[in-house]
Amino acid sequence: MPAFEMSDANFPVDSEGRTYHVECRRGDIANRVVTVGDPQRARLLAKKFDQIVFERQSHRGFLIITGIYKQTPITIVSIGMGLSMMDFFVRETRAVVDGPMCIIRFGSCGSICDAKPGNIIVATSSYGIMRNYDHFTNPFKKSEPPYLITDRVQADPVLTSTLSQKLKDSMGKSEIFEGSNGCADSFYGSQGRLSANFNDENESLIPILKKKYSDAVSLEMEAHMLYHLASVSTNPTNGQQNIRAACALIVFADRTGNEFITPEASQMAVEHCTEAIFNTLVEERFSNNDLHPLEGSV
Ligand code: R1P
Question: Atom of ligand 1 at shortest distance to CA of 38?
Fold first, then answer.
């Protein structure tokens, strides 16, 4: 149940101008944004703020923390998991921010390259992996492949190269990997995890991905939606792209060696990456205006 009465069925907002799911309104969100899946990761990042100026937990599980870092407003939003949550987050924050936005996803992933748990993968591009539902249930579509793999969408090259360099400076070059990320519509079937309880036909999915994209490095569940929405984002006044995006992903699972990260190593990775991510955003210069339009008023 929404906490408040909503108006506008096309893009619901409450009487105070807050969006329906993320519950953000104008002034809550900075142009520079870090998005994470896990609220604990959001809180760990927020410890590096000099000051927290806004915080809100939405009834649909989004946590917003806006703070000041080196005199620059940055917003952290934890979104939970999956494509729909990324879609809610990007569209609803975009609706309440004036001017261009830079968004860095700081997530976790499974590695399908040499990166080990605790290493960081910078996703230079991302593609979608979707279960071809009809293949499984429609006998006339059995000849279609069980999984649909989209083209790659590129991350913002400038944001990505700054992010990658700063992560290398902070953690050491050998800890940082780059390549294309597969963004799946499930943690299980569409990421090639085998199950005795479902007929997923995914035994050869990872080799298929690596054959299609020789730079395939990771699997997760949000980056393709972020890069896709950034690529189709439009400034209503000049028609130009209005969101630039990049991703740094902590390797939680080594899908080749079958290892999983320890809680301590995961916390350490967050601590080592946070300032590199914040500094990347602080150094970003927006084309029309160097400063956040709401600077001082968030
Ligand atoms: C699965 O465990 C979740 O972890 C990864 C996946 O993309 C998925 O959301 O990212 P986050 O750690 O950012 O949630």
Answer: 14
User: What local confidence, expressed as pLDDT, does residue 5 receive?
Assistant: 84
Q: Which residues contact 126 (CB under 8 A, 6 or more apart)?
A: 152, 153, 155, 180, 181, 182, 183, 223, 224, 226, 227, 247
Residue 37 Cα to ligand 1 middle (Å): 6
Which of 43, 108, 187 to mutate for ligand 1's pocket (most ligand atoms within 8 Å of CB)? Answer: 108
Please give the domain boundaries of the chain with CATH numbers for all domains: 25-283 (3.40.50.1580)
Output the CA 250–ligand 1 centroid distance in Å: 10
Compute the distance from residue 10 Cα to the ligand 1 centre, in Å.
Answer: 29
- pLDDT reported for residue 298: 43
Quick one: pLDDT at residue 7? Answer: 84
Indicate which residue's Cα is closest to atom 4 of ligand 1: 108
Angle, alpha carbons 120-123-126 (nearest 5°):
145
Per DSSP, what are the bridge partners of residue 177?
A: 121
As given in the structure block, the two tokens for residue 96 are: 């309440």
- 59 Cα: distance to centroid of ligand 1 (angstroms): 20
Query: Are the beta carbons of 112 and 210 closer than 8 angstroms?
Result: yes
- pLDDT averaged per 10 residues, the chain (length 298): 79 96 98 98 98 98 98 98 98 97 98 98 99 98 98 98 98 98 98 98 98 98 98 94 98 96 96 98 73 44
